[in-house]
Design brief:
By secondary structure, this protein is an alpha+beta fold. Helices cover about 20% and strands about 20% of the residues. The chain is built from 5 helices and 12 strands. It is globular. The model is unreliable at about 165-170 and about 200-249 (pLDDT under 50).
Length: about 250
């Protein structure tokens, strides 16, 4: 599967045992980060793709669900790029081991294409190919987000989601926060800061929102009121590349 660094977000999914960053589906030279990022290989069709190797427990999560997360976590309609990251190393790809895995990938891709089309997106460009060999990436690339919580990992997802009606949590009664002072988190689906924050501070209520990250309390707070329902004003905590609404007065 594609999504080198950012794909580590999959590691937080229940049932996923391990995620390893690496390179695959290339030929003609050694698979190293230094080699694949050379300018001469930027549009080389034989360049290696930045990928992740996912180990999971099939009794806890299905391959189909993993593929769903794969498509939701990036923009599969972009050809050889993800946002400003351009080149064949950034291509969207699924590398399978068996025909059965390929069939599952095709089925999920077809389902997602329907959702994308209805949302006004172009055709999926994800390349499906048999896995030849997985080359583990350098040590400093492993667990990148754990080692670098502020590291480069932009969200290039389309925002289009599979129907998770059956997975929705029960509604939370928020009347307790209508008075007094409380902590309110706009929680990202995959965020190491959010996980740490929830472990160390009492949470009164949790409002889920895609692509917003929590930063430690020593962040600079900008008093920018946001219109988020009837509970406001909120304070906006700005990081280098992410915003977090983390406190309401």
């Amino acid at each position: 599967m594609v999504a080198f660094g950012g794909g580590e977000k999959i590691c937080s999914i229940t049932g996923v045992i391990d995620v390893k960053s690496g390179y695959a589906d290339g030929r003609g030279f050694d698979a190293t980060y230094r080699n694949i990022t050379q300018r001469k290989h930027k549009f080389n069709p034989d360049n290696y793709a930045e990928v992740i190797e996912v180990t999971f427990n099939p009794e806890q999560i299905s391959l189909s669900l993993i593929f769903r997360h794969f498509f939701e976590l990036h923009d599969p309609t972009q050809q050889n790029r993800q946002g400003n990251d351009i080149g064949t190393q950034y291509r969207s790809t699924i590398l399978y081991n068996t025909p059965a895995e390929k069939q599952v990938a095709l089925e999920v891709q077809a389902q997602y294409q329907t959702l994308l089309t209805n949302a006004g997106f172009d055709k999926i460009t994800t390349k499906l190919a048999p896995l030849d060999k997985f080359h583990a990436a350098e040590t400093y690339h492993q667990d990148y987000l754990v080692k670098n919580p502020n590291g480069y990992c932009p969200d290039h997802s389309t925002g289009v989601r599979f129907d998770k009606t059956k997975d929705k949590s029960r509604e939370v009664d928020n009347t307790a926060i209508l008075s007094g002072q409380h902590i309110v988190i706009i929680d990202s689906e995959f965020c190491p800061y959010c996980d740490l924050f929830k472990k160390t501070l009492p949470i009164i209520t949790l409002v889920r929102c895609r692509c917003i990250f929590v930063r430690p309390w020593n962040s600079k707070v900008l008093k920018l009121p946001l219109q988020l329902g009837r509970h406001q004003p909120y304070y906006l905590c700005r990081t280098a590349s992410n915003n977090t609404v983390f406190k309401v007065m």
